[in-house]
């Protein structure tokens, strides 16, 4: 017989209790992993942001637009390599639950400023040529089974009316963090129709995205741009893409903080569950530990027996939780509207953290029972009535 | 015959809150190698305490316990644990087998601490179980055995590492007469055939009679018969 066999047999002594403890740990690990994945998915935009891109928006609020005429002025600022722009179109595709970014963009410059959106030259050329065409991300194409030539009918809300777009290109993400759930169409297509239907709202863009040649000069370039429009009707605020994304996140920071706190509270709960199991097990075995000591087992052996059992339970629970995390996260990603979290994948660091936490909890949960077992004298152990 | 146990001026007291409860007073005792000693006496006379001190599972308040030329009262916990593994086989009144292990695995437990190979351990365990007549029950769990059989497994566990001394605390206290006789016969055989030094604590005069020497303890003092 090996000590490991004894550890296994001890772990399975109260099958129901062990099963419930393992289940509790597994559920807690799943909850921890899902929460952490939501938190990381929330901030994926920050991770994906490029160091050499700036965002210029209306200084008062992002919801106000900027004149299209700013484009050429921004392009002349020293250090600016390329300028593109976009309008948030929104609208309803199929029904209100189908959420993904629908943007009016400049087809000429968009894919040069965002090289992480990979599109074939033919598709890009067609997109540039045809005014009512659109390009969609591969994830959107898969979700709605859209192919080149299909028509997307969108019911406008910010820009009222019935809008038809023909899919002429499908882009692929270059990186894991690249958002492949967007739809782009011609800004001019939007602007021309606004000119007819809503005169006075034309010639406006939502924000400018500026590619700069030297990321280390981002602050200086930003300052120069904002200086250009100082005291104008539409003052600007220029910041790095990362700062811009972080600004978005700040509006939901209390939710993210709560999720972070809850995910760590869950770890505490696992520890209490396992700690309780180990304390009960050690208490029931007080006499047995006295027998082991009498037979010549040392403190080191007892530590191994108790900590080993705790580690077996936490490892099985952690392993089970981790194994179930992947299908649950995949199901979760399917269930939530695609555009909410463009990237919804468990990160390696989350896996490492949850496995480490499960093992650490296995060790920590055994400390109190170990102390008690070691402190109890053999003769007191034999007198113990559980 | 040489002495295997020498006890000199041994005293032991327990403390309950701030009250000292003396159990053994200035006790002196010698046991010869291969001896068979029975300790008798009323409850609270200190028999089990004396046995525990000889087996190194309790510490004296004062005095010396010298076993096989080693003063075990001066040993540290770790050294004492090693010493017990080599020198002492302990038989309890309530067997104290590990319920999740089979008879074989229970007997094998003390050998896990040795450097014996798996094959050698198997040989030792089978020999110990055959001595106690339970080779056909080696894969049974304790709950599948009778009280007498459980005690025989406990004896096999006590002798498997071939200790010098076998100590038994009321080994027949929880058994019917037939089972008790079997255990006593077995212990007598271990003493005579295998030359084990045996010390048993018992209330039962019949059990005490199989010993070569019977000592009476009363209020912590030894009355040599």
Structural notes for this entry:
The complex is a heterodimer of chains A (386) and B (225). Chain A is α+β, with helices and mostly antiparallel strands. Chain A is built from 15 helices and 13 strands. In chain A, 55% of the residues lie in helices and 18% in strands. In chain A, a hairpin with a 4-residue loop joins strand 8 (151-156) and strand 9. The longest helix of chain A has 37 residues, at 299-335. Chain B has 225 residues and is an alpha/beta fold. Helix content of chain B is 35%, strand content 29%. Chain B is built from 7 helices and 10 strands. In chain B, a hairpin with a 2-residue loop joins strand 4 and strand 5. Chain B is globular. Classes of the chains: A alpha+beta (386), B alpha/beta (225). Chains A and B meet through helix 1, helix 12 and helix 15 of A and helix 2 and helix 3 of B.
